[in-house]
Amino acid sequence: MRIDRETFVKAIEELEKNGEVKVSDIAEKLNVSRPWLYDNFPQVRDFNQRLTDDDVIAEIEKLRADGLSGRITVEGISERLGIVRQTFSRRFRHLYDYLAPDSDVFAPSTIEETLLTRIQELEEKLKTLTEEKEVALNKKEGEILSLFMRKDAEHFDTIKTQSSLKRLQDQSEEHASLAKEKTREVAELRRQLVKSKEKESQGGCEIVNRLRPDYSAISELEKLSVKDISKLFNAAEKRNFELAEEIIAEQQPDYVIFFQPFFACDYSSIPAFPTSGKVVFVESNAFREDVRNEFIANIRGENIIAICAQTTLAKTKLFARGLKHPVGDDFVSRLHENIMLPVLKDGFSAVVTFDPENFRHD
Fold it and tell me: How many angstroms separate the CA atoms of 166 and 224, rounded?
């Protein structure tokens, strides 16, 4: 298959008329796979790096600093970020809690408290510099006014006045330069604060990204049949896999952990993690072998670890009822009856199957 640069650029220009462009949009437009697109046009990685969680949180913080009261709307923050509402809902749904008026954008920790203390010190210093600038301006204006009052206008020394005004201008510019420098330093410290909050460490490795399906659409509707739930469930899994493929291609982690709790446990129950390296963690309840194998083939990694929960139907139903977005006993029963556990030949470097108290390595 040959797609020249002119065709590639033309496809992007057409897509950009409708808003933000994703790699998956380009691949669909050109009728190619995402892996093929990454191999032949590596510059598409830039389309997945335009906005990060850092950018969104920083923009929310600016709105708070401007004295915005009440909840920040999705439309408002999307407009500030230069994207459409649908793009924000798709890529940053996990940041919705930060839009509430009483939300804390930063959770306290030892490192964060140190950074916040430094930020407060710099802000105080910035305030002091501003006050000193005002005092200097007022003082110089008083000196010039006194000079005018003491001397007759026709004997006024024009040269000295100009020199005095020049010194005043130089001092003002110096204060402004110092204020800008401190502002940049505060912004950098805030960026580091956000980074320290995002990074997770587990078992010696660094989890650089965690992805999980968003089943909120299921709980938003009432009296759904198993067929309706299955449709929404499959759509959520598909969106999660597409986003995971893009992030793994961008970040090139040392390991990918493919966690399948099957509505029987949560992330905290996982029995083992790699002892080092960067990890992208992908959670999925997809129980069909063909769906799982398509995702594994698309990410094409050598260090993909499958971790799967396996327990009784009764225990699974009990756990699933307490989830934030419960899917119902009938759907859990159907899933439990049709689970096809992953095996090494599917493309995994290791497969771990466990229950709440015992687990084994295949």
Answer: 76
Number of alpha carbons in the 13 Å side-chain half-sphere of residue 53:
20
Instruction: Tell me which residue of 106, 98, 122 sits closest to 188, measured CA to CA.
Output: 122
The residues spanned by each domain of the chain are 5-99, 110-198, 201-361
User: Counting every residue, how long is the chain?
Assistant: 362
Q: Which residue has the tokens 């030949």?
A: 345
Tell me the C-alpha distance between 188 and 196, whole Å: 12
Check if the beta carbon of residue 209 is closer than 8 Å to that of residue 5: no
Question: Chain centroid to CA 108: how far?
Answer: 19
Hey, what amino acid is at 352?
A: V
Contacts of 304 (CB under 8 A, 6+ apart): 255, 256, 258, 296, 347, 348, 349
Distance CA 205, CA 279 (A): 7
Single pTM value for the model: 0.47
Q: How far apart are CA 208 and CA 204, in angstroms?
A: 13
Query: Which distant-in-sequence residues (6+ apart) come within 8 Å of 64 by Cβ?
Result: 105
How does DSSP assign 262-292, residue by residue? TTS--GGG-----SSSEEEEEE-----HHHH
Written as six digits, the tokens of 85 are: 């509402």
Element (H, E) at 128: helix 110-150
Q: How far apart are CA 159 and CA 145, in angstroms?
A: 16
The set of residues, in sequence order, having a beta carbon less than 8 Å from that of 78 and lying 6+ positions away, is 84, 85, 87, 88
Tell which CATH architecture fits domain 201-361. 3-Layer(aba) Sandwich (3.40)
Give dist(CA 339, CA 77) in Å, integer. 41
Question: What are the pLDDT digits (tens) for 182-212?
Answer: 777 766 766 655 454 444 556 688 998 999 9
Rounded percentage of the chain residues whose pLDDT exceeds 90: 16
Give all strands of the β-sheet with 304-309 in edge-to-edge order.
Answer: 200-202, 205-211, 278-283, 255-260, 304-309, 350-354, 359-361
Residue 204 host element (H or E) = none
Three-class DSSP category at 208:
strand
